[in-house]
Amino acid sequence: ILSSLVTIVSSASLVSKKNSGVLMIGRSGAGKSTLSVAFLHHGFNYFSDEHPIVELRNGKIIGKSFINRIGLTSVSAKNFPDLKKSFEWNSNIRKFYFNPWGKNETVPDTCSIDKIVFPKFQHRGKFKIRKLKPLELFGNLTRDDYFFADTQDDFKNKLAQNHLEIMMELT
Q1: Which of 2, 93, 106, 134 is the most buried (most CB within 10 A)?
Q2: pTM to 2 decimals?
């Protein structure tokens, strides 16, 4: 599927509300999982906490579900005391896990990605939001863990081409 379509897997989280998706891109520890739980706490639908599938379809960026549990550090889990009963501690990984889709909920298949967030966790810092210029946005997108560039592998070259097409559409 990844080689035949303009499709990529990204190191990101994806949530949506009324089919309007928010893609949160960042390395491990950036705050994607914490933001995902915060969005879910405010009525958003869950798509993925680690590896959403992102596709360019008819000029639109579409997000697809890749179901997995959300892992939170103990520091992050403290931000959601009312969800404490829903968390499961994993002592080997030293994280709390949260099942975001619940027992009776279904996960939507797709959503339109309308916003991109690059969280950067700051302990005891204020949450800041600023709009990135297209060049900054493109630079941040190329730092994705799954971005390939200048490779001799045909499959990776196709993925790199897909990444670039999607990144150009996002900027």
Answers
A1: 2
A2: 0.73
